[in-house]
Design brief:
Blueprint lengths: L1 H25 L4 H10 L5 H12 L3 H12 L1 H35 L11 H9 L1 H30 L8 H12 L12 H25 L13 H14 L6 H6 L10 H24 L17 H33 L7 H21 L5 H26 L3 H5 L12 H38 L29
Helix pairs in contact: 1-5, 3-9, 3-12, 4-5, 4-10, 4-12, 5-6, 5-10, 5-12, 5-15, 6-7, 7-8, 7-13, 7-14, 7-15, 8-14, 9-12, 9-13, 10-15, 10-17, 13-14, 15-17
């Protein structure tokens, strides 16, 4: 208990020094400007962290969950959401514990983190060594890279339902340029207003999907045959694994907090709110359209075009821009550290240095525009390790010795009877995700992904688009009489 108290005091003390220095600098500015800037720009409270977690967790995947329900069936869809939501909250808690442990050790060595953002691979390096650092860096960066790719694909997929005069690939070019402007946002400390707005946007979209589906009613001869094939079942399951595995940026969000030791249960509280968005919307859309969703991975494609749908599309576009920034910012930090620009104070210089990160994301979004199937593939091959297996193993290894457990900065939570119980839960998470998520999920999602490539090809110009009206055969009377003989 004493060790935990000292660790927390060290972190709070260091953060207080940084805050005081920032306040002294900011006092030189106009007082009214300072107030506005603080309200919109400088976010480090518990509420800021909650908004960041909730907003980041339920982005474009909200639109693919009805598609997953058509693969899983209603019961499995709801049960797996609750199951993976709780599991994701548990591993997010483990990451927060390891962050506090790492930082408290470094604070005692008088390491100053001013102008340096701690990242997950650095936590692994400090606690377990360079091999774990390499493992964490490889999986985390690859996941965040494809997470950013998915946001670009989602932007193009959504805007197409408002304006189909341009194909989805062209829209990807346009939104790639728009999303590149996130290079100007310094850190998660500056996402206060964006996180708040982002969660409001997804809340509107989720309830629009639920209400619109109920108002629309069930389509004629609707069928709910799922699950029918193992490939589809495990593809849908890994999409839900991906849904509640959005905590690859947990460490960066914690580091942006004034008191990061208060993060412990924030992700769980964010997940509970997210349940109120994902379960009603996915269930309602699946109830209304049933098996039609198997060929429509974006829920917007089946709902009637009106002002409410267009508003939801626009709000999701803005939110996907925000989520692109969430996914890309840790990549920006890594790149800055590689080229020695991380401590540069000039926002413009850092923005210029970050631009090369956006180019491969842009390119990959054009190569693999498979909205829906790519979520499952990323979930099985990357999320399974990044946010489930690696944190669980890292926690087990960090506290494998009795001395480490005795001097731990964070003791087991109040609802956990002992360290043994924590080990049992961690071992269960590792085995389950390795077998079901990575094993079966990897097989199913890659089978489905390859099928999309075979069907639509790489660089698909307009994935799952309706054929243009002009391609239809003209009526017989428009032809010369000679053509009918």
């Amino acid at each position: 208990m004493m060790r935990q108290k000292q660790g927390e005091e060290a972190i709070v003390s260091n953060m207080s020094e940084v805050e005081n220095e920032e306040q002294n600098n900011d006092q030189q500015e106009n007082q009214s400007m300072f107030s506005v800037k603080s309200f919109l720009w400088h976010g480090g409270s518990v509420w800021d962290a909650w908004f960041s977690c909730a907003s980041n967790q339920v982005a474009q995947v909200l639109l693919t969950l009805p598609y997953s329900f058509s693969q899983l069936g209603m019961v499995s869809g709801i049960v797996l959401q609750v199951f993976y939501g709780i599991m994701g909250s548990w591993t997010a808690y483990l990451i927060s514990v390891l962050y506090v442990e790492y930082r408290s050790r470094k604070e005692k060595e008088n390491v100053n983190f001013k102008n340096h953002v701690i990242q997950w691979f650095e936590v692994l390096d400090g606690l377990l060594g360079k091999y774990w650092k390499a493992l964490g860096l490889a999986f985390n960066c690859t996941f965040l890279l494809f997470g950013s790719v998915i946001q670009l694909i989602a932007c193009a997929s959504n805007i197409y339902y408002i304006n189909d005069k341009l194909d989805k690939r062209t829209w990807t070019y346009i939104f790639g340029a728009c999303c590149a402007t996130t290079v100007f946002i310094p850190s998660f400390h500056n996402y206060r207003i964006w996180s708040f707005l982002g969660l409001g946007m997804t809340t509107y979209t989720a309830w629009y999907l639920a209400i619109a589906a109920l108002v629309h009613g069930q389509v004629e001869n609707v069928t709910h045959s799922g699950p029918t094939k193992l490939v589809l079942y495990f593809t849908g399951a890994t999409n839900i694994l991906y849904t509640f595995g959005g905590h690859a940026v947990t460490v960066e969000i914690m580091h942006a907090m004034w008191k990061p030791q208060k993060f412990k249960y924030i992700y769980l509280l964010a997940t509970l709110y997210v349940f109120t968005l994902t379960i009603p919307s996915a269930a309602a859309v699946y109830w209304a359209f049933g098996d039609e969703l198997l060929n429509h991975s974006n829920a917007f494609s089946l709902l009637p075009k009106n002002a409410f749908r267009d508003s939801a599309v626009i709000l999701m576009l803005i939110h996907q821009f925000i989520t692109f920034g969430f996914a890309c910012t840790p990549l920006y930090f890594v790149w800055e550290k590689v080229i020695g620009m991380h401590h540069t104070k000039s926002i413009c210089m850092r923005a210029l240095a970050r631009l090369p990160v956006v180019i491969p994301i842009w390119f990959l979004a054009i190569i693999f525009p498979f909205f829906g199937p790519i979520n499952s593939a990323v979930g099985a091959l990357l999320v399974s390790f990044t946010v489930y297996i690696i944190p669980s193993l890292a926690h087990m290894l960090t506290y494998r010795k009795s001395s480490a457990r005795q001097n731990a900065a964070e003791k087991p939570p109040f609802f956990m009877p002992s360290w043994t119980a924590m080990y049992v839960i961690n071992a269960f998470v590792v085995v389950w995700v390795l077998v079901v998520g990575f094993g079966f999920g990897g097989w199913a999602s890659m089978t489905n992904f390859i099928k999309q490539i075979d069907t639509f090809g790489l660089f698909a110009k307009c994935y799952q688009c309706k054929p243009p009206v002009v391609a239809a055969a003209p009526p017989p009377h428009s032809h010369p009489p000679s053509l009918h003989h």
